[in-house]
Amino acid sequence: MAEAHQAVAFQFTVTPEGIDLQLSHQALTEIYLSGVRSWKKKIIRLKNSVITGVYPASPSSWLFVVIAILATMYTRSDPSMGLIAKIQEHLPVSQSMSTQCQALVSAVLFSTMLWLLLIFTMRLCLKQLLSYHRWMFEQHGKMSNTTKVWVALVRIFSGRKPLLYSYQGSLPNLPLPPIKDTVKRYLESVRPLMDDTEYERMNNLAAEFESSLGNRLQWYLKLKALWAANYVSDWWEEYVYLRGRSPLMVNSNYYGMDFLYVTPTPIQAARAGNSIYAFFLYRRKLNKEEIKPSRIPGIGIPLCAAQCERIFNTTRTPGEETGKETDIASLKNTALILTLELTACSHNSAGRSVDSCQVLKLKLLLIPWAKARTKYFSSGVNKRSLDCIEKAAFFVTLDDDEQGMMGDDPAASLDCYAKSLLHGKCYDRWFDKSFSVVYFKNGKNGINAEHSWADAPVLSHLWEYTLATDCFQLGYNAEGHCKGEVDSSLPRPQKLNWEIPPECEEQISQSLAVAQALADDVDFHVFAFRDFGKGKVKRCRVSPDAFIQIALQLAYFRSRRTFCLTYESSMTRLFREGRTETVRSCSNESSAFVRALEGGEAAEVCRRLFRAASEKHQNLYRMAMTGAGIDRHLFCLYVVSKYLGVESLFLKEVLAEPWRLSTSQTPIQQMELFDMVNHPEYVSCGGGFGPVADDGYGVSYSILGENVINFHISCKHSCPDTDAHKFGALIRKALHDLMQLLSPNHKEPNKTEESRPEVKKDL
Question: Which residues form the Choline/carnitine acyltransferase domain (predicted)?
């Protein structure tokens, strides 16, 4: 009963003398402090709304305008050109208001209107400035005079000390490309993948579409582009993510890794305590909008921050046709779920222990989750327990396995580490949460993220902050425990109870079998390429991303003797509510280079073709970033055709083409948090994702500092034509061959040294 007494603010009993109140001072204090915190948050939100609403001006600038107008009036000049007098004429006549007072009120009203007009003008100017993208297409290191003037104007109109969402109202809308340009670029992108007969057929389909149905569909998209902030993002989220019917595990969710060579503490609970606290520090900064807006490095152009709104307290909830994102960011109290693989679960009415009830902390999406949720989890104790999870800030798993680079085969242990973060045991993650954090028995950790609410760079920003705060700010004592004293007054964790009937237990068991088969089919290979990095690549005057992408094309051609449709993710956050666009990395130029290199052409010829392929890739990437991509436009045209109930053979075939090589780069966004020179081991190993096509590869890479490139490669065991480890070896070989071509003095590494990974002792 002691816990029950502490759970209420006061207790009372009815006695012959009347009602006897026994007040709890501690409880009343907590209620008071809770109210204070709530009002502080409201005040902060109100203040931030005002600051963001008038940005790039500041609230104090209003006072400056008012004083300036009043000062000019006292010099017997009229800066309003008669408008103040007009306002004074229409003021309500009040006998208690003198003529001078009316003039003062009119001047203040005019000053306020002038101030708002200035803000509107500055925002409009900034929006127009941010619509300029020619700077991106200029040669590196050679900035035109026009761009120099543009940079100066952007800095003038960008204001000072922006909050996280200060630039949202000034970002331009995503432009809608002309349909003829998109079709032309599409045909160019598929030319290296088709023979003459196939290409001629596709060319005819495209011409027919462009001249007939395409113009009609484009008209509807123009209306949406005029009306909506972004003509792509809402449909992309709904139809690509929320209406997807395949399991999130492996197919959609992605993961991020801990430090590769360093484990700050071997104590699982201590690592969890520090980093969970760091997560909440980030959330506090997020709520106060104190996080600096993300910008393009070097040039300082702001990026859209809309995806940051749903980092915490967000859950994907299923429906029969489409899921939805439930955002509960306004919650005052946050539940944090710590899941252990427990067998002490609920009992059914017969008193029999439900052994598979642990599958409830689990990947329920793999059962017909929408129907099961309605039938078994919409009321009673199950609903209360499910609400605790879905309303939590995020999900935490305390895993009883050890992971990381360790043991006699550190390379294989990295592969197991990746698979554990991607799917775990299929029942010890909650894949519907915006993100789940996993803490392993030996102190390693990692993160698994649901994809519909945001893209990887948004979560990566949070992950970098958490890793840096955990190790460099909070730290651990000599024994590896968290610093500070234990607060014994903190409440103990509460167990969530579930009531699982036999028919639900059967569905869970069937779902687990499906999930296990999916997880077992994933082949993963993770390795750190340390022979050279972006430093040496840039000395060859080549874009590191283009270098890697061409190496991937070379590796794939060597594995299959053909080319494939290649997906590289590019962000469109230069625009309001922008998400991603596709860079079709397999181009005529890259395929021509690969064929020449494999055909034994002269080195000079191959170098010339490589330069052309690199420039082409950079141009494709820039076009994707500036709204001139191919795939999002075609996707939206297809959605419109479905709404209109019309069929397009051209669009149907375009969207049915498999991406056998799906790639993505994970950039380090906050380099100031890490010391890559003195402590290169203190940086995340990056992250990865599952294969997009059953007979293809998923390749994620992160460029760390000047000398390291980490690769995460996935495919499926069930496909006889794919092998993650063999493809990794081909990537290594391709990287060395390209460097040998561009830098003839480059020496091949000793094979023994190359096969022996560098392992540093965990701290």
Answer: 174-323, 369-732
Q: Which residue has the tokens 């995020």?
A: 394
Q: Dump the DSSP string for 548-617.
A: HHHHHHHHHHHHHSS---EEEEEE-TTSTT--EEEEE---HHHHHHHHHHHTT--HHHHHHHHHHHHHHH
343 secondary structure, DSSP code = -
Domain termination site, one of 160, 183, 218: 160
pTM: 0.85
Q: Three-class SS string for 455-490?
A: CHHHHHHHHHHHHHHHHHHHCECCCCCECCCCCCCC
Taking 90 as the threshold, does the pLDDT of residue 66 lie above it? no
- Residue 334's pLDDT band, with cuts at 50, 70 and 90, is very low
Cβ partners under 8 Å of residue 29, min gap 6 = none
CA 291 from centroid of its chain's CA atoms:
16
Identify whether residues 432 and 337 lie together within a single domain: yes
Side chain identity, residue 541: R
Cα–Cα separations (whole angstroms), residue 650 to 186, 201, 639: 11, 10, 13
Residues 95 and 60 in one domain: yes
Its domain, for residue 91, covers 55-160
With beta carbons less than 8 A apart as the criterion, state whether 559 and 726 touch: yes
Which residue numbers are catalytic?
451
User: Letter for the amino acid at 130?
Assistant: L
Residue 513 located in a structural domain? yes
Calpha distance 735→711 (Å, rounded): 12
Q: Mind spelling out the 3-state secondary structure of 77-144?
A: CCCCCCHHHHHHHCCCCCCCCCHHHHHHHHHHHHHHHHHHHHHHHHHHHHHHHHCCCHHHHCCCCCCC
The radius of gyration of the chain's CA atoms, rounded to the nearest angstrom, is 30
Q: pLDDT (tens digit, 9 = 90+) per residue, 482-524?
A: 998 877 777 788 889 999 999 988 888 888 999 999 999 999 9
- Whether 94 is covered by a domain: the verdict is yes
Instruction: For residue 723, give the amino acid letter.
Output: D
pLDDT tens digits along 546-602: 999 999 999 999 999 999 999 999 999 999 999 999 999 999 999 999 999 999 999
Tally the domains of the chain: 3
As given in the structure block, the two tokens for residue 479 are 């024994």
User: What does the alpha-carbon distance between residue 563 and residue 458 come to, in Å, rounded to a whole number?
Assistant: 32
Segment 136-142 long-range contacts (CB within 8 Å, at least 24 positions apart): 136/622, 136/625, 136/626, 137/619, 137/622
DSSP-assigned states of every residue in 273-336: HHHHHHHHHHHHHHHTT-SPPPB-TTT--B---GGGGGSSSEEEE--SS--EEEE-TT-SS---
Q: Are 453 and 316 in contact (CB under 8 A)?
A: yes
